Amino acid sequence: MEDPDGFFGEDVAATYDEDSADMFAPEAVGPAVDFLADLAGGGRALEFGVGTGRVALPLARRGVPVHGVDLSRAMVERLRAKPGGDAVGVTIGDFATTRVDGAFALAYLVYNTINNLTSQDAQLDCFRNAAAHLEPGGCFVVEVGVPELRRLPPGQTVVPFRTGAGGWAYDVYDCATQSLSSNYVEVTGGRGSFRSIPFRYVWPSELDLMARIAGMRLVGRWRSWTREPFTHESTGHVSVWRRTDR
Question: What per-residue confidence (pLDDT) applies to 236?
Fold first, then answer.
């Protein structure tokens, strides 16, 4: 990917909030902010993949000092332009390896962003990076979906998740490599466009092992930010690990 902003350049950033409007609704953001503010306990919070500030801004308004890391300058420009945007410090860089000064009570990564790291090594580096930023007893939180492999019959690799007259979207899985791509076809004025974003899907147990390697232990796992039990039928999870090695 030649764009220095990665897959979230100006063309994506310009409509990101609008395209993800359901995730910006109070009923989606409020429980996440409540959960994270409670864990921060008045300490500093570090968001990996801060983007346009969907979570960081309301968390900062709750009195939690928030710093973000993001590769995309285009996304961060949108954050800066919003009311209160200057209250959130941001470091431009890869959140798997970029270091920020100081220690934090909380590090977090929401909305499937761990999957933007497309190798197991990079995902493990992210856990190590989170642990390196945490103060003693600090917590790392990840919100991510459970891979939807149960929806794949034999011989099929494609799972559609949006269809309509103006276009459609679908995921493509490779179970041998745990690679995943989300693909978008848009039709406007009789002309079509195509965009594909690569990911690496990851299992809850795999995340737990990464956490242990990084010196953290699982505190709890829930289906959502409102702490419903995580079960066999859950399509996603919010997991919390605590740094325990110092």
Answer: 97
With residue 26 as reference, give the H or E element that holds it.
helix 26-40
Spatial separation of the C-alpha atoms in residues 241 and 39, rounded to whole Å: 11
In three-state secondary structure terms, 25 is coil
Joined together, the tokens standing for residue 168 give 């459609």
Edge-first strand order for the sheet with 179-188 is 158-164, 167-174, 179-188, 191-200
Task: Report which secondary-structure segment, H or E, holds 131.
Answer: helix 120-133
Spell out the SS3 assignment of 187-206: EECCEEEEEEEEEECCCHHH
> Which of 103, 191, 115, 105 shows the shortest CA–CA distance to 146?
115
Give pTM, 2 decimals: 0.93
Spatial distance between the Cα atoms of 48 and 122, rounded to a whole number of angstroms: 13
**Terminal alpha carbon distance of the chain:** 38
H-helix or E-strand containing 60? helix 56-61
Q: Is the pLDDT of residue 1 over 80?
A: no
Strand, helix or coil at 166? coil
Averaged over 182-210, what is the pLDDT? 94
Banded pLDDT at 52 (limits 50, 70, 90): very high
- Sheet bearing 104-109, strands edge to edge: 89-92, 66-70, 45-48, 104-109, 134-145, 236-243, 216-222
Cα(32)–Cα(36) distance, integer angstroms: 6
Cα separation, 210 vs 200, whole angstroms = 14
Separate counts of helices (H) and strands (E) for the chain: 8, 11
* Cα–Cα nearest to 107, from 240, 217, 215: 240
Q: Are 46 and 64 in contact (CB under 8 A)?
A: no
Between CA 244 and CA 70 the distance in angstroms is 27
